[in-house]
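Reading a protein record of the kind used here takes only a little practice. The record below shows the convention in full:
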Amino acid sequence: MFKLLRIPRQISDLLAELEMFFTLHQWIHFQTMLLSLLITPYKATVRGRSRVLAFGTHRTKHNEFLQHSGELLGKALQYYALKLIALLEQAQEAMYVIVDDSKTAKRGKHVQAAFRLFDHTTQRFLWGHQFVCVTLLYRGMTIPYAIELYRCKADCHKRHLPFRKLTQIAKDLIAGLPDFGIKRVYVLADTYYASKQIIRTVRARGFHFVSFLKSNRRLVINGRSTSVSKFLKRSFRKTRKHWISFGKARYATVQQACYLPGLGEVSVVFSQKKGRRTVLPLFATDSTLTTKEIIAIYRKRWSIEVLFKQTKQYLGLTAYHHRDEHAVRTHLQLVLLAYALLTHLFLTEQRAQGKTFTTKLLATFSPRETQQRIRALVAVDTLDCIQDRIPKRWIPTQHYKEQIIDQIKTYLLAA
């Protein structure tokens, strides 16, 4: 396996604008840790990444960087997201801000910010971390924007730290969103984040909120107070349905203008997929949306789940072994920056080929394939670096030297 001897020029050019956030030593650590995260065949721990580095400082310095650079990486991640939005900018295109959380199990009992939590996927309790993530979906491209580690109430009390609920973290992240200069911005989340504080914050920013309602949520329809479960039981079956199709999937829908106590006027769509008994009550604060538009917008929320799966599988989002919570937060931000770098490389290469950013072209983006592309770039650059360092007395002629290097490159790229 070839080790990283230097940062390839093509990669350093993509990251050049982020240099203003770091000092010289931090900038070197940032580039090497980010690139080693993308090319390492080992686990994405500090030790695993250091095994592919042939230059730089010892891995203990990398640990120090992780413990003290979380705030800088957070700013760099948000700046990078805005840069990618600018590359994709197109008039009359809507943006979707997606909020969700994810969990990961950890073994260490002395890991900071770890606590006992319930995992709905496996239906069991586990010891680990939970974090809130915000992504931007623009023209079909998922762009990571921010990620925050959650501390449980007992841990905050023990360490004399301020406690914030998951909804409070999400509210603060939404309140800190910049003005994108885009007319239509929709915030998407599951029902857990459909709280009064978050929706008021969304409305104060001039955005719209789309989510679904719990079965016990109170609502007022045509002046009569009821709940979601009562409406589904008494009125949904009797009401005339409007059928909507998305590909092969068909939905029986009923749209109602409702008043939610504490939230105001909203448009609610009761949607039942053909062949299923469950009815999903979606709602949107934008009353101008049609039934099909509300369902289509909420379907975009799934993109953040795909991001979690891809970053965990390919970039080691949950592969950290840190006890310090600041190092954990920095690692999470570094992984999202790596994903943003993959997106940036894809867009840059497509533009260099003279292609237009159509919906069909952007849908071909694959983080895994782009990651392999970066590994190939690093391999070729490493061979060029080796070629420059080979003493002339070792090889009889320059022509023979070039033949050897070309042969190695051919075998490597073929593999």
Notes: The two ends are 12 Å apart (CA to CA). The CA atoms of residues 179 and 205 lie 9 Å apart. The mean pLDDT is 90. The chain has one domain: 1-189+301-415.
